Amino acid sequence: MSDARPTLAYVVNTLNAGGTEKLVVEMSLMFATEFAVLVVCLDEPGIWAETLRARGIPVHCLWRQPGLDLRVAVRLAGLLRRSNAVIVHAHQCTAWFYAALSRLLYPRPRLLLEEHGRFYPEEDKPLRRLINKLLIGRLTHRFVAVSQDIRARLHRYEGLDTRRIEVIYNGVTPAPVLGGEARRALRAELGLPPESFVVGTVGRFDQIKNLPMLVNSLAQARARIANLSGLLIGDGPTRAEVSALIGSAGLQQSIRMPGFREDARRVIQCMDLFVLASFSEGTSMALLEAMSAGVPVAVTGVGGNPEIVSDGETGWVVPSGSVDALTEAIVESAANPARSAEFSSAGRRRFHERFAFDGMIEAYRRHYRQLLGDAA
Q1: Which residues lie closer than 8 Å to 105 by C-beta, 6 or more apart?
Q2: Which among 66, 142, 331, 368 counts the fewest CB atoms within 10 Å?
Q3: What are the C-alpha distances in Å from 117 to residues 283, 287, 302?
């Protein structure tokens, strides 16, 4: 019996742990009742590929080689043709580039770009802007940015017309609220003293996340908050560097690094303050998860962070790279529980108003329906 559902293909670099990748998994599962969904990874399948395969969603890999690998576009076109794909949703600009080129060989699918984040620091490449203007952009039907900042960067560095770029903020589904006893048990499992004030973060250990800023702020704040503990959830290429910094600061007993956790949304609720010290961000999934759980937040004023967190209203916004400013936010959060509680309540309200998962899904459903109409 043939599947009457139209085919929707998500193209992404990989399905290793990360905010973009988590969103691809969740969107694939959400739209699988309406579309025959498949996921195409450019580089490697990643740890979440089997999660989707176990749910009946195919995951293919093109094994892209370093540099410009035009064979990827050829293989992608063949895969999309065999799958009878009608819509291709490319996550981030590399996936977009190859998906657009594949339309030269198989033009049927309507193509949507969703840009989540940018490299840091940005590189200005006039040739790339020209190619996008003359070719890649013309092969694309819809453009989405996950923040106003990303929208501006797509114009500045990719040469795209801002009038064609819609902002759709990421959304998450809140985790079930931990009761007091469950929270205490989870803290104990993580090696956190029950009376400690826990400052933490969740994300990939990557240079762009600027975890040394957080570690250095914790070292400074430790002198003023006797019961301070740190909780850094995640893994990645800078893990050894961060671990060495923790050791040199004498914080081995104060900061826990349990690695990647599938239950990160639950673990966030063990924190008294969530920190995002990044050099650049789109719309951080971990930040939204913290706000949805009512955890007070402190973030650097970069990328989409100030679009999510209003300084002095829903959290603390500090200058990028300012260890002293972040230290003061940590100290104030520990010393002023009433202010932290105000930020907690206001942050949760902001989340439900602007960043709910269902609202994001409905925005993409609207695009998909319009693209299906265009393809008819």
Answers
A1: 73, 74, 77, 78
A2: 66
A3: 8, 14, 12
Share in percent of the chain as helix, strand, coil (round to 5): 45, 20, 35
Q: Model pTM?
A: 0.93
What are the residues whose beta carbons fall under 8 Å from the beta carbon of 283, sequence distance 6 or more?
A: 116, 146, 147, 169, 170, 304, 307, 308, 355
Closest CA to 348 of 297, 281, 278: 297
Tell me if domain 7-171+357-375 and domain 180-354 are identical in fold: yes
Decide: 70 and 42 in contact? Cβ < 8 Å.
no
Residue 9 C-alpha from the chain's centroid = 19
CATH architecture for residues 180-354: 3-Layer(aba) Sandwich (3.40)
* CATH fold for domain 7-171+357-375: Rossmann fold (3.40.50)
CB atoms under 10 Å from CB of 2, counted, come to 4
Structure confidence by residue, pLDDT tens digits, 77-89: 999 999 999 999 9
Residue with tokens 């971990």: 286
